[in-house]
Structure formats: structure tokens, C-alpha cells
Amino acid sequence: MKRQTIFLITTLIIGIFLGWLFFHTSPPKEEKHDHTAGTSKETIWTCAMHPQIRMHEPGKCPICGMELIPLNQGGVTTDVDAIHMTKEAVQLANVLTSIVSRQNTVKELRLYGKVQADERLLQSQVAYLPGRIEKLFVNFTGEVVRKGQTLAVIYSPDLVTAQQELLETVKTKEAQPILYEAAKDKLRQWKLTEKQIATIETSGKVKTEFEVFANTTGIVSARRVNNGDYVSPGTVLFDVADLSHVWIMFDAYESDLPYLSKGQKVTFAIQALPGADYSGNITFIDPVLDPVTRIARVRIEVGNQGGKLKPEMFATGIVKANLDEYKDKLVIPRTAVLWTGKRSVVYVKQIKTDEPVFKIREIELGPMLGNSYVIMSGLNDGEEIVTQGAFSVDASAQLEGKPSMMNPSAGVKVSSMPGMDMPADKSQDNQSMEGMDMDDVPTSGKKDTPVGKTSSLTVQRATFGVSGNCEQCKERIEKAAKSVNGVSSAVWDVNTKKIRVEFNSMTTNQDAIQKAIANAGHDTEKFKAPDAVYNQLPECCLYRK
Description:
alpha+beta, 5 domains, conserved putative lor/sdh protein from methanococcus maripaludis s2 fold, Elongation Factor Tu (Ef-tu), domain 3, 31 strands
């Protein structure tokens, strides 16, 4: 009985275990939520050359036929207009940032000029006697002469006659003193000294040749006579320049004149004398601008006792002007600013983000301080901005369809057409998507994947090189490009020498735009400006070496 009971209990336990083993269901596991799944965006495909194209599936660009690339959606950000970049992308693009701060507003002006002789020390050695040059003691330009040195010997028949008259009046000077004095005055008018007149009078001999003496010390800058030439009173024999004191004449553009004043210190270097530094104060600013070159002359006076500074040597000067009216203003590097001609923008790094996130911001610029700008408004002290690689960040913004330098009102939204995303602003690049007929939409090789009607996407962008130097060049180049029918925008960068144009491909093309710019006087990548037009440009715009 006991064994039977034990057997039944064992059988019951084994049965319960087998029932639990075969029919047991695990309790439901706690559901884990993927927080990134809800916020992850569907991959959007775009064209590297035409960022207005937005596709839900890969394929070819309906405009240029290039393979579409996945669009970087910018990660998870609270600001849809911000540009999200990975740390690796920032390093590859060489994007650097710096903190905005207040700096000393000192504008540095660079002036170019030449060494010139002091006009007040120029002398003309003239002949006071009529006659013939018998002998020259100065035979070439550049010879050094000293004051009192004999420069030439002149034979003068008129002077011979005047001497004879003097000797005749000497005999009767007691009876006729007036005639005697008149004869002497005649010789004095020909610059004979009292000593020479006394010698003639005491010797009783007529002198046929007379010397011409130097009245200053300097360098002969021009020789105007030769042996045997006949001269009259007042004829210039030599030009002599005293180079012990010289002028440095700098060219200042009209935009630089508000920052220049008399008494300002100028440090300058001479290209022919490397390593030597000179300085002087501004003593004169030309009150009238040259109507052709649009420059005024600025004069510095310096000593030249050693004679190292020679006329026509090239000089480069630096003037540092304190802008007291912009004291305590924010100053940022010039490389941080993206300038479109009307708008100036920077990219500000967002705070409290694990990876670099940037957002475009429009600012108001003050005067340029060498390699930096004064900021009038738009930034706050302590903010961090992109100072190198701003174009790379802007290019990323354009590819993502977000606000950028050339398209401030951009934004991406999903259109009602399946498989196609369009920019929210249809006033610029999006004009190419208007008028799309859904029945005529071709496919990219995948079933029911609309790509777009190629003939309706006519807005194109292009970038090419254009030669130029200054802001006048910029205005002329952009005006020439916009004069072409079909060009909606044109922006030329004075630093990169590149122009970015946006045009209707059904109306014009790149060749027509480049021809128009070349006809205005600026060489492009395909066309050279006519010489006649180029030679008419202002001096500051002449870019050919």
C-alpha cells in the first residue's frame, strides 16, 4: 500500500512537470520602445547639382541625369532650419569656429606709392649770358654737383663789348660817373660778381670766356645742352635735384580718405630695400581726386642723408586708424562672413548639442578692419560662429533644402504627390516644378516612382571663374550677367574670383552669360574680353599682368 501511494505521487509529479513543460507559455516581455524609431526620417534622395530635386527612392536626376544621392536629413534637432553635421564631416570640411568678442577697432589701411624728389629742392641751372657753350664740365645725367662748382664755360660776344665799354668809362669815371656805373650795372645783370668786375677793371684786359657756377648741391636729373650750342639768357642748362630730403607719394582711394588725416603716422617699406622699416607723418592730402583713377595723393616727407631712397622706388605703407565711433563693438574675422551683395550672413553654432549644429543668421556689417569686420547688429558677445569653412556649411544647407546664403526662405515639406518632395518656397528654384502633369511623369526604372517632367525643370545654377580686382569689378560683372535675358540672379565673389548665376535654361545658357561678361571687360573661363574694352577700365580694375 505504501509503495502504491509513493508510485501515484511520483506519477502525479511527473505528469504535472510534463504538462508544465509542454503547455507553459512565457509571460509577455516588457515592450521596449525605440525612441529613435519614432523620430527617424525616411531617406530622401536628391541631386548634387540640383538640390531642389527630392525623391523617396533612388534614381536619376530629371534635369541632368546624374545618379541621386541620399540627403542628409540633419539628425534629430528641435530646429528644422538648423544644419546638423557629424564631427567627422566637420573635420573633413575643415570647419573651424571661434567665440565672438569685443576688440579694439583699429582699421588698417594699406597704401601703395613711390619715392619722389622733394619739389621744393629742385633747381634749374640757367645761362645768364648770351653766347656759345665752349666747354661742359658736367657730361651726363646723374652726376653729383656741389654748390659753387663750375658747370660750363660760355663765349659771349655781347659780354666782350660790355667789358670794353667798362674799360672806356674807367678813364672818364671822374668826369662822367653815371656812364661808369651804367657799364658796371650791365655786367651785374649778367650775374658777374663784384670781384669779377674789379678784376676786369684793374687788369684792363677783356675776358672772352665766363664760367657758369652751380647754385645748389644735388644730382643732375637732366642735361639740356651740348658743347657748341648757342644759348640766350634764361636757357636751362641742367636740372639739379637735391635728394637729401625726399617725398613718399602714396595713392589713396576715395573710400580710404575718411580714415586719413594730416599728422597720422605711416610705417612703410621699400621693395628694393627689404628688411628696412621707415616711418613718417602725413604732411599733405590732395584735396582733389583724379577723375580717371579715383585716387588722391598722400605725401610723407622723410630725410635721405644716406641717399638710399631713390626716386621711383616702390613703397608699401600701413596706416592704423583708430575708429573711436565704433569703440566696444563686436569684431569677427572676415572669413566668417558670407556676402551676397545685399545680405551678410554667418553660421552660428548651437549650444547644448552633442554634435555640431549650425544655423544661419543675417547680420549688419560695419567698416572692414583689415581681415575683420565690425558688427553693428545680429550677434551677441560670447556666441560661437564658423570662421573657416562657412561655404561648406552653406553647401550642406543648400543640399538639405534649408535656409542658405542664396536662398534665405528655403524649407522642405512633403508634397501631396507620392514619392516627391518639394521646397516650401516656390518663388525661386521651385518654379521649375510648377505646371507638372501627373499623367506625363516618367519613372526612374522603378514601378510607380514619379521623377518629374524634364522639360518643365528649367531653372539652373552655374559657377565659373571671372577675372577682376575690386568692388567696381563686382558691380560691373554682376550687371553684365543680369543683363542677359533669363538670368534671375548673379553674385561674384571678389576673393574666389567665381560668379554664381541662376538662369532659365530655356531662355539662355552659360556661354551667352560668359560672353556678356567678357564684352563688359572681364575675362571668363571660356571667353577673353576685347582689348579695346579692357583698356577702358579704371586702373584699379586692370587685372592682366
